[in-house]
Design goal:
There is one protein chain. The chain is mainly alpha-helical. The protein has helices at 13-44, 47-74, 77-98, 109-141, 147-175, 178-195, 213-226, 228-243, 250-257, 261-285, 292-312, 316-344, 350-379, 381-402, 404-407, 412-419. It has a single domain (13-199, 210-419), classed as Up-down Bundle (Growth Hormone, Chain: A), CATH 1.20.1250.20. The protein starts with 12 loop residues before the first helix and ends with a helix.
Length: 420
Amino acid sequence: MAKNDPYAALRFKEFNIFLLVRFALVFAWSMQFIVVEWQVFSITKDPLSLGIIGLMEVIPAVLMALFAGHIVDQKEKRNLLALCIAAFSLISLGMFLLTWPEFITNWSANTVLYCIYALVFFGGFLRSFFGPIIFSLVALIVPKQVYPNAATWNSSTWQMARVLGVAFAGFTIAWLGVSLSLCIIFCLVLFSLVVVFQIKKKPILNPKIGEPVIQSLTEGVRFVFKNKIILGALTLDMVSVLFGGAVALLAVFAEDILKVGPKGFGILAAAPSVGAFLTMLITAYLPISKNAGKKLLAAIFGFGLCIIAFGLSSVFWVSVLALFFSGVTDGVSMVIRQTILQLKTPDEMRGRVSSVNSIFVGSSNELGAFESGLTAKLMGTARAVVFGGTMTLITVITTGLVLPSFRKLDLREDFDKNND
């Protein structure tokens, strides 16, 4: 195998099957998020309701995250993923039925709204399992020497699915309506459920099967907080995502500020993912191991600038460009973070470490959505986005000054060890 082969992970058949499942799930989940946001805003006309969507998902995701990591480390990963996909299909079916006119003829708008919130809540519970399973399964499908390359393609697939998912959602809302859009999502989830069984069952590498839950959770959290590199990267990204959650307000921008309708909404929602996806493809050829700490700080600083530019813009193409470049910078951040986690996490602790990661970073997306919705209610939509971008810049500057060791982070030694 070539030392710097950009397609190293793709040469493993099961990894390609895994990417297909990953693509279908993320595409469906991204579509569902956009369609649900559009439907909820259509019902309420209140930006705070968009923030509540994030809050309904983040509460169970955070509360269950550590326990989910413990369970993932104790169980066989392929079957556990299949079980989660099956549960996701039930949520998608529920969303479809809630928007099908013949099914909810006598239901009030508030009843439909509360049922949507309930399904989003159960989706958050389910999402707490997806992250640790996916993170752990990658390490069981490819050998250790291609972990960095696998992390890049895994993240690229995630971003590409988001790009197409959110854009497709915007167009299907306009062309087919909300109900049929949700029906497509349900079919995609069923497809992923069938394909996942093409992956063989994997061994359980945790030597402490049956370990008491509290002891297991404590060990996972202690590992993350003792590893300053992992902790610094997660904390930095968490704060930036928390205050840079402009995506949660895109429906308001599309309707009230830019006045571009559902098609423009889909383009705005897709723009960050397009930028991130292109960035990740480039990093497959140009690894970011050298001066990784400085690159991470610069990327998140650039992300904050892009969010401010988006908040200040009232011109559609300027807003699209700002979101595109926010995706470019976010893509660099994601690749660096995922590479750090893959290289520095022991196999037997991947579920728990990924769960801590989901609390720090994954759940901050939903908390960011709630923060954006709340600040938009208090200070106006555009000002809320500018405020979030400004807080991101302050966070990066503070981190760079307080943690000089983080600026010196370099991953070349870790790459060399895994290629020996």
